[in-house]
Design a protein that fits this description.
about 350 residues
Length: about 350
């Protein structure tokens, strides 16, 4: 009797293990938006002899879909490279599921689910997602309940192109602070920082609507003090970025209005508010940095060439002018927040060529 019980127990474990192994395949069958945790797949180890067999290669399988992904812009430099990838992938998955170009809201839900799964289920990336999907200058309201409300901010694009410059050093430090989220979430004044940064974002919005570079400069300085110096305790800003800013101050004088880091990963990248974009770009290039005027971009786009059965999905990068307050949507913080970001060129694209 004991041996039979052991036998059935072992058999149950075998079937349970089989179900767990096939779950990633099974989960994809219903095409519902879901995010799977990273699964480590171990290679099959040789048992000392070949187990392969000849395969009939005479069958010609039809090609149903070809995808080509073209990245543009720097990766891991604080300009939301990962969110762009999730936006393109999420849009493609919904297109495959429905056969139609999907609306932006379900794409946003999918992108945020991907980002949050990657971040240990923390509520992150709302201020990245909204400008990339909706384009232009976006305010992102994040509720303590977790709700995300995009709000468009009307700004003349020429104003930002004349005053906003983004730059990074090729070969420089990439996003490299794996403990950034833990550090931010565990800060004893985390809710206070979310509230105060949200107030700064409101001032920045007023400055943007008025196209007032001096008021925007004050908001960016205050944001830098609150986020990188205060909440981040100086650990989330690459030391070379303030040195570059100091050099710009010496070269530009009053033409340098303000500066902030790009993202929270201490990368070799900077966002500069200036009264003379061309001179600022030239000064940064002389240091060996790649620098560009912030060309405001449209959001996620679908272009379908029916005669070629080709769908092209494109998405811009983003600059966070006042960020981090979107973390307040996480249940661990539960504080209403407000952030501002700008969608900028260049655009990455996913080209889907449809076969049969």
């Amino acid at each position: 009797m004991r041996s039979q019980i052991v036998h059935w127990f072992e058999l149950a474990l075998f079937f349970l293990g089989t179900i767990v192994r096939v779950m990633p395949w099974w989960a994809r069958r219903d095409r519902k938006p879901r995010v799977e945790a990273a699964i480590a797949v171990q290679p099959i180890r040789s048992q000392g002899r070949s187990t392969s067999r000849d395969v009939d290669h005479q069958e010609t399988w039809p090609v149903t879909t070809v995808e080509r992904l073209s990245w543009r812009g720097p990766s891991a430099n604080g300009f939301s490279h990962s969110t762009v990838g999730y936006a393109l992938r999420g849009a493609a998955e919904l297109f495959y599921a429905t056969g139609q170009t999907p609306p932006l809201a379900p794409i946003a839900q999918r992108v945020l689910a991907y980002e949050r799964a990657r971040a240990g289920n923390h509520s992150v990336a709302a201020n990245d997602c909204t400008p990339i999907l909706y384009g232009g200058v976006m305010g992102t309201v994040t509720k303590a309940s977790g709700e995300v409300v995009p709000q468009r901010i009307g700004v003349d694009r020429a104003f930002l192109e004349e005053h906003l410059v983004w730059a990074y050093r090729p070969g420089g430090i990439k996003h490299q602070v794996p403990t950034a989220l833990k550090r931010l979430f565990s800060h004893p004044s985390v809710r206070d920082y979310v509230q105060r940064i949200s107030e700064v974002a409101q001032h920045a919005e007023q400055a943007l609507r008025a196209e007032d570079p001096d008021r925007l400069s004050m908001a960016m300085v205050r944001y830098r003090e609150l986020f990188w110096d205060g909440w981040g305790e100086g650990m989330l800003l690459n030391p070379e970025v303030p040195r570059v800013a100091e050099h710009l101050q010496g070269e530009l004088g009053d033409r340098l209005l303000s500066w902030i880091g790009a993202g929270a990963g201490a990368a070799s990248s900077i966002v500069v508010l200036t009264s003379h974009a061309a001179v600022t770009i030239a000064t940064l290039k002389a240091l060996g940095w790649r620098a560009y005027s912030a060309k405001v971009a449209e959001g996620l786009r679908f272009d379908y060439a029916q005669n070629q059965r080709r769908l092209t999905i494109t998405a811009p990068q983003r600059i966070a002018l006042v960020g981090a307050a979107d973390l307040g949507a996480d249940p661990a913080i539960a504080q209403d927040g407000y952030s501002i970001a700008v969608a900028i060129e260049p655009r990455s694209e996913l080209v889907i060529e449809l076969g049969e």
